[in-house]
């Protein structure tokens, strides 16, 4: 117990003396051993590497797992050295909901069968996302975390030790200057030589660790390339799955190509046409200038929403205006021919209220 008390008192004395020494250095009242320019550059580069690695690591975590609650849960499991329980991705959850809804609506109905197709696609998208998350965590996040929790802690420890050695060296220099008697000077000179040796040895150890930052950059570059490869593969898989889904939906009955948007939120009817199928504007061989209104069958229509023409074959609309509309053989049921004065063009049915 006495040993511990004496050690505590000695540590307190060292801490107090170093605090005084720091203050005197800041005020310019004490000598300070300066490190060479190369060493200072190594320190600056190490600090820069640590700061940016930490920011990149944190933001990559947010990218891979936007839910902060889930990130905290994973962190706690990791600290407890326990395996994180499997968590379904959002795509997999959506897939489950769609498949269950299809059972309720009937898998033989157009809506139910489409829900099954889309749900299966969402399941595959969710699986691809899971593989991407696992791959990115192993190939990119883990190396960054290992640097922050391993190499950087070692560097920080050695830097603190170097700072202590510098303070001891400067304290020995100060004692040598104050020594008057020959014996005191001899003792101070011996202490100074020992402190200088310890400082030089610690500076060399710290310098080697700081120069290792170059190897860290090379390793992080390799990990970054692997992250990009994993991301590219993930997006390619998603694109492939969506193309396959659109091909399947392109073979769906015409009854599925209806506008199911709620009132008050109009959508361009062309958005409901499968990607691989030609749009109504492409399939119609009609020349707008040559279209003539039928002898009977024209109607007045009130425009519900503003609409900007997509090309020269369409007619731009403004809400609340009245136009004359009619259909011609071969036209898609989602479109009509609209006339306003001398202007004529195709207009989407969903933007109109037909008047009797």
From TrEMBL:
SUPFAM superfamilies associated with the record: BAR/IMD domain-like (SSF103657), SH3-domain (SSF50044)
Pfam families xrefs: BAR (PF03114), SH3_9 (PF14604)
Any Gene Ontology CC annotation: membrane
Keywords annotated in UniProt: Coiled coil, Cytoplasm, SH3 domain
Domain SH3 span(s) in chain numbering: 296-356
Coiled coil start-end: 169-198
Subcellular location: Cytoplasm
Residues covered by the BAR domain: 24-258
Domain of life of the native organism: Eukaryota
Family note: Belongs to the endophilin family.
Protein name (database record): Endophilin-B2
